[in-house]
Automatic annotation (TrEMBL):
Membrane topology: Multi-pass membrane protein
Gene that encodes the chain: cydA
GO BP field: aerobic electron transport chain
Protein name: Cytochrome ubiquinol oxidase subunit I
InterPro entries xrefs: Cyt-d_ubiquinol_oxidase_su_1 (IPR002585)
Gene Ontology MF term list: electron transfer activity; heme binding; metal ion binding; oxidoreductase activity, acting on diphenols and related substances as donors, oxygen as acceptor
Membrane-spanning parts: 20-40, 61-82, 94-119, 131-154, 174-201, 222-244, 289-312, 324-343, 373-393
Localization terms from the record: Cell membrane
Main location (coarse class): membrane
Family the entry assigns: Belongs to the cytochrome ubiquinol oxidase subunit 1 family.
Amino acid sequence: MLLGMETVELARLQFALTAGAHFLFVALTLGLATLVALLQTRATFGRDPVHQAMTRFWGQLYIINYAMGIVTGLVMEFQLGLSWSGLTKFAGNAFGSALALETMMAFFVEATFLGLWIFGWNKLNRWAHLTLIWVVTLTAYASAFWIMVANGFLQHPVGHRVQDGVLHLGDFGAMVANPAALVAFGHILSGALVVAGFFMAGVSAYHLRRRTAEQDFFRKSLRVGITVALPATLVTATFGGIAFQTLQPAKSAAWVGNAGRMAEAQAEMVALHGPGDYLPPVAWVQSGAMTMLILFALMFFFAGLSFLLMLFRPVVRGLRIWHWLLTAMIPVPFVAMLGGWIFREMGRQPWAVYGLLTTAEAMSPVSAGQMRFSVIAFTSVFAVLIVINYWLLARAARRGPAGVTLGDRPIEAAVPVATF
């Protein structure tokens, strides 16, 4: 298949695979950081050993995913320089500040405080340690925010000026207040809570179905996961509905499949930019959006049903078919997030910076052969990283609280026999 593709198509395929894979790590990291911070808050104020054990267990899963997310992010950034030098040359002066701020947040502030949190168990007082995880969570939000500011600029460039044929930042406030960034940030953040909520509920259901020893531990974890996932699904849908009002004309026309509106959008682009095909791939836009919407309906229905079922302790303890379905739901939010990402990014085509720089113009001067090698190399690396992350997460999740090494004290001593 790669042999018949043009250079620009190969570059787009590479970026789609690497960015999409990295996006999955980010979604779970953002959501789990929030849940771990909430669990530790409950444990700190209430001095509850069960919630303390929950913080350690889910915190260890968070650390595994965070570490692999950092690695995939570094690998992804390499291909930005290799394949898209035209983009950085033309627009880097404008949106590069947002990327720089994201790097400072993720690799300096967030990573530093996470290290203090990891190694500060039983060394710092409980209030200082609690403050650390909230700083980690808030800096993770800030990191995601600056990424969405950069992406929002590509979707709807504002706050820039043109000088010597390249873009420069003219109004930082306008770039930060870009609706294409702010709405998307809310959508991503709430979607990450959906991902983490279903992940926590699914892993907990796995242990409840297998009748592992820490039943009270996983009953509480399941309830936390569902309690977060249900409202987060509604908030995600709300931001998604608002985002539909900020769509580019061509993307909006492709989504509804209105031939007349697509012709109008094409004519407007031709009038502004000259001859060319300015319509996004309709099939990709529609399939991405439909995947997202259908899975949202499934998640909302299942989260609502699960919320009702979890009110009855015998059901939480013994309904194995529900436990099995909850575990099977773990990948569904990830697929929905990918569907939404495809809808957002494919709908921008053929523009790298909407209305200013095409994807072909953003390419580095590389040959098709070089791009084929690059696609194979990057895809192979990411495939290995994804398999390793899945294996590490699955192994740690299956072992349960007894296998946790986060902190100095053995986790077995922190899990009491208690009733819900």
